[in-house]
Amino acid sequence: MYRIRYDLSENRVYINIEGEMSPSESQKYIEEMYRTIEGTSTGFTVFADLSLCAPSVLKNSENFEMVRKYASEYGVSGVVTLVSPQAFEVHRSNPVKGARNIFDSRDAAIKYLELNAGQH
Q: Which letter does DSSP use for residue 85 in this model?
C-alpha cells in the first residue's frame, strides 16, 4: 500500500509505502508519482517514508530509480528516505545502488532536507 501527497506550501512530495507492493500497484505508484511531480514547482523536495515497507519493496529499486530520474528532470532539490532501523543498518553495510540520504529518524531526515535542499 502506498500514499502520495504534495504539500504546496512546503513544495514537498510525501511518499509513504507500507507492506508489499504488487507489480500492478508498483506501476500505479510510478504513474501517480509522475503526475505528482508534474504538479510541483522547481526546487521541490521529496520525503519518502519506507520504514514500514516490506524488504522486497526496497530490493525492487528500479521503480525508485525511474521516479528519481523523472524528478531530476523536473528540478527536485532534495530527497530523503526514511527506513526502519534494521534496514538502515543493512544499508550502511551494503548500500542500495543509487540510494542516498537514507535515515532511520524522521526528525533527522526532515532537518537534512531543510538544511540541504538545493545543494545537490
A: H
> Which residue has better confidence, 120 or 71?
71
Backbone angles phi, psi at 28, to 5 degrees: -60, -40
**Cβ–Cβ under 8 Å, residues 69 and 33:** no
Any idea where the domains of the chain sit in the sequence?
2-116
Specify the CATH number of the domain 2-116.
3.30.750.24
List pLDDT tens digits, range 1-28. 999 999 999 999 999 999 999 999 999 9
Residue 101: which residues within 8 A CB-CB, separation 6 or more?
Answer: 78, 79, 80, 81, 109, 112
**Contact between 108 and 88 (Cβ < 8 Å):** no
